[in-house]
């Protein structure tokens, strides 16, 4: 019935679908479509394909890609700082240096490690070249595992307490207030006090676990606060630290925007903190990272 | 009051997340070490999505995004504040992708395996759309580069034609034309066009001057 020589080409059909043909072109295609079921089918197919593109699910950058990117940028920053002839770059915005006393040893150690690990950083994190430094406390006191922890931790120990402040503060962190909430949590009662007096850690009445003594029996108090799996948490922290063995200053099993989450805070250089918000089942390669922010200490 | 507020704005890093992109770039150029990180955190998912959909391979996409952000970090001085940061960044990401594709072209093409396609289509969680997503990710890989980039920006990410033209450095009409061809080619690769239609574009994909092959020989 239809004359094959008048079939509009598929690009024209696509232009018609997008409303990009001029008036006479559109009229001519319309006229043809009224008589040609095949072209009408092709037009519908093009519209379906276009709609399918728009309905692709959103993707988020995986954790390993984020950490590799952060590391590459840190190396670029270090290079830039060297080029400027400054050993320790000082931001012109005059950020205060508070909270962490020893100024540069950790920064230098991490920079050295990260630069040397850079080409295979992800692999290093998985293999665990700097395994379990200072994380013995997370295991709830399995003594045998701590033997390897001393070799690499001298630089870190000068700055962080040997065991991270691990608690369930009951805080509901949000993106806008994250930095302030982390500082508040960190400046709360010291770990020793938390151990001695459960319940003073925050607005919720969860008991809090300081040195790994009571981490496993606090989960019944609050349904929204996720219990921590020490093994998963340890590999997670390893991944977050890029295999550098840095010891977290805080691990808070809490909520983020109302959802169960773990807030892991790692020191960065002398006066900054890397705040990672991860899913409670944080595992390497599991898109576990919900949010990341670098803040001043 | 003013003194307190200005002290606050320089002293409190969380305020950075409230600053707009252009201000953050200025801070970055002034030596603020935290500013660029905020920009990265704000734009990395979009950059990742563009690279992943364009390149079709997570490893290549990771390299391209890293190249792009490093390039943006180093060449921040070339950013002009009257431009939109996201447009500028998209241009860098797209160029990094093109660079990757150029390098890949000298290597033999490796067809997307099912596992990879599934990962690209649905790396975040597994819900019902994943079959279709995998199919589309696979079909995208067969579409000419210029057309693929155009439909990734316009159709997948909803970018306006004018902005896409700005990103790609071509006239708006060229973006439209690439979108038309890309959508038609995609429909062809999804097997939804009648036989003989829409699948002949691949080799001529990046040639703007070549019109779409016309009448269907099987019907003449």
Structural class of the helix and strand makeup of chain B?
mainly alpha
| Whole-number tally of structural domains of chain B | 2
Q: How many strands appear in the DSSP assignment of chain B?
A: 0
Q: What's the N-to-C terminus distance of chain B?
A: 81 Å
Largest sheet of chain B: none
Estimate the strand proportion of chain B.
under 5%
CATH homologous group name of the largest domain in chain B: RNA polymerase sigma factor, region 2, helix turn helix motif
* Helix segment tally of chain A: 10
Shape of chain B, please? elongated
Task: Summarize this structure briefly.
With 297 residues, chain A is α/β, with parallel strands linked by helices.
What does this structure look like?
The complex is a heterodimer of chains A (297) and B (220). By secondary structure, chain A is α/β, with parallel strands linked by helices. Chain A contains ten helices and six strands, in the order αααααααββαααββββ. Chain A has helices at residues 10-17, 23-35, 37-54, 63-83, 105-117, 121-127, 154-157, 178-186, 191-196, 230-240; strands at residues 165-167, 172-173, 250-256, 259-268, 272-278, 289-296. In chain A, a hairpin with a 3-residue loop joins strand 4 (259-268) and strand 5 (272-278). The radius of gyration of chain A is 27 Å and the shape is elongated. The model of chain A is unreliable at 87-161 and 191-224 (pLDDT under 50). Chain B has ten helices and no strands. Residues 1-13, 121-129 and 199-220 of chain B have low confidence and may be disordered. With 220 residues, chain B is an all-alpha fold. Chain B has two domains: 1-108, Orthogonal Bundle (Rna Polymerase Sigma Factor, Chain: A), CATH 1.10.1740; 122-220, Arc Repressor Mutant, subunit A (Orthogonal Bundle). The longest helix of chain B has 21 residues, at 35-55. Classes of the chains: A alpha/beta (297), B mainly alpha (220). At the A-B interface, helix 1, helix 3, helix 4, helix 8 and strand 6 of A face helix 3, helix 4, helix 7, helix 8 and helix 10 of B.
């Amino acid at each position: 019935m239809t004359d094959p020589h008048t079939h509009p080409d598929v690009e024209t059909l696509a232009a018609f679908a997008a409303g990009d043909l001029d008036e006479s072109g559109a009229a001519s295609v319309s006229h043809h479509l009224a008589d040609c079921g095949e072209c009408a089918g092709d037009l519908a197919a093009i519209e379906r394909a276009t709609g399918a593109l728009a309905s692709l699910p959103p993707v988020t950058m995986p954790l390993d890609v984020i950490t590799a990117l952060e590391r590459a940028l840190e190396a670029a920053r270090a290079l830039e700082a060297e080029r400027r002839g400054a050993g320790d770059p000082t931001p012109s915005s005059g950020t205060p240096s508070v909270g962490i006393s020893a100024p540069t040893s950790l920064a230098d150690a991490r920079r050295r490690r990260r630069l040397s690990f850079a080409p295979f950083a992800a692999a290093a994190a998985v293999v665990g070249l700097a395994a379990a430094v200072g994380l013995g406390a997370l295991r709830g006191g399995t003594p045998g595992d701590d033997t390897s922890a001393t070799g690499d931790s001298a630089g870190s120990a000068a700055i962080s307490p040997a065991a991270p402040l691990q608690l369930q503060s009951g805080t509901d962190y949000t993106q806008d207030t994250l930095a302030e909430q982390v500082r508040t949590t960190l400046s709360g009662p010291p770990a020793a006090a938390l151990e001695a007096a459960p319940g003073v850690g925050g607005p919720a009445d969860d008991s809090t676990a300081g040195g790994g003594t009571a981490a496993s029996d606090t989960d019944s108090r609050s349904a929204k606060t996720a219990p921590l799996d020490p093994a998963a948490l340890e590999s997670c922290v390893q991944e977050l630290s890029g295999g550098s063995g840095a010891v977290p200053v805080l691990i808070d099993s809490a909520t983020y925007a109302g959802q169960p989450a773990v807030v892991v805070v790692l020191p960065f250089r002398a006066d900054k903190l890397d705040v990672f918000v991860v899913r409670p089942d944080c595992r390497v390669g599991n898109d576990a990272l919900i949010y990341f922010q670098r803040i001043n200490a | 009051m003013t003194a307190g507020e200005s002290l606050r704005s320089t002293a409190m890093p969380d305020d950075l997340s409230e600053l707009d992109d252009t201000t953050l770039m200025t801070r970055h150029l002034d030596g603020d070490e935290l500013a660029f990180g905020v920009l990265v955190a704000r734009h990395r998912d979009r950059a990742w999505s563009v690279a992943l959909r364009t390149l079709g391979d997570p490893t290549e996409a990771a390299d391209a995004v890293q190249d792009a952000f490093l390039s943006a970090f180093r060449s921040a001085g070339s950013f002009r504040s009257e431009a939109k940061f996201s447009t500028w960044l998209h241009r860098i990401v797209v160029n990094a992708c093109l660079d990757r594709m150029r390098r890949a072209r000298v290597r033999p093409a490796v067809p997307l395996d099912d596992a990879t396609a599934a990962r690209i289509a649905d790396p975040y969680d597994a819900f019902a759309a994943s079959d279709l997503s995998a199919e589309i990710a696979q079909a995208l890989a067969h579409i000419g580069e210029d057309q693929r980039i155009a439909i990734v920006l316009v159709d997948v990410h909803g970018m306006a034609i004018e902005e896409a033209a700005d990103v790609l450095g071509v006239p708006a009409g060229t973006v439209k034309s690439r979108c038309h061809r890309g959508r038609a080619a995609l429909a062809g690769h999804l097997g939804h066009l009648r036989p003989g239609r829409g699948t002949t574009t691949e080799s001529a994909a990046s040639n703007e001057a070549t019109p779409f092959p016309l009448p269907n020989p099987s019907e003449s």
